[in-house]
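worker-3 :: picked Pirin
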Amino acid sequence: MTTNILIKRQPLGFPWPTLDPFLFCVHHNDAYPRGNAALGPDTSLAGRNIGQDFSGKDGWSMYHGEVVAGFPAHPHRGFETVTIVREGLIDHSDSVGATARFGGGDVQWLTAGKGIVHCEMFPLVNADRPNPTELFQIWLNLPAKSKMAEPHFTMFWHEAIPRLRHADANGKTTLVTCIAGTVSGLQGLPPPPDSWASEATSDLAILTLKMEPGARWTLPAAHAGTRRQLYFFKGSKLSLAGQTVDVAQALEVDSSQAIELVNGDAEAELLLLQGRPIGEPVAQYGPFVMNTQAEIEKAFSDYRRTQFGGWPWGAPDPVHAASQGRFARHADGRVEQRDSLAD
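worker-3 :: tokens ->
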């Protein structure tokens, strides 16, 4: 069996390391308490650096939120955000007039393109019990030809996301969730039109894997030139083509070969990001990602001049009512309504 399938391993920190075409990946996992009438934490916020709280105190952070945890209005240009909400809820609002509440396995894919301002708040809707919230946010670069595309946001509701439960010869199962790309006969939902993921040759994929103790599953080979990284974020030990690795590592692997994954004695979870590199220069400053420093300076100038369309909401951190279920209202007025809150 090939022994050089594991190219590089790195510890998972904050943020997680990424490969072109991905720019950023962070895992938020907060054990929020019960909510108050304002949908914030029903407890004292004393001892926190409010507005810049990444402390993890008591198992959770307020981030940039002051009343409700989360990220009040902030701009982006030149890339996309993919937000995978594994547990809890996010209230989204943006400068083009769209708003949403999503969670419990839903995914939002936002093309910032030429510029958008949005907020991502974490409403604590349960007043009688804790509000655990867990999500991945991934930044996916845009090629130069698409950096000034019109902003666009897409919802992947969890009921529609393709999943496969594979049982190995011993009956041990691996749950594969295909958010983007193609794997083992699963085809992800269509990405936004200007995304690198929409390029026929990008070979882009975003997957999550949940493996029972002792489960075996083979990840098929990718196309030539694709780079692939596995994030082993929950479990104990995992074998990749005979090489044993510990949890809390980012694993760059040779995508040209199929890889047998064999889980250890604890339930394991992994995130997979792969794609053919865009291979263009990256100039980044904060929330703007372009190809040159001059383009970064223009992004700041444009934002100061236009506010990327302005902010149509009455506050920088709006949230919906506690009783509001999952929904999305798009900039064109189209509404996607879910019947109830995600389980």
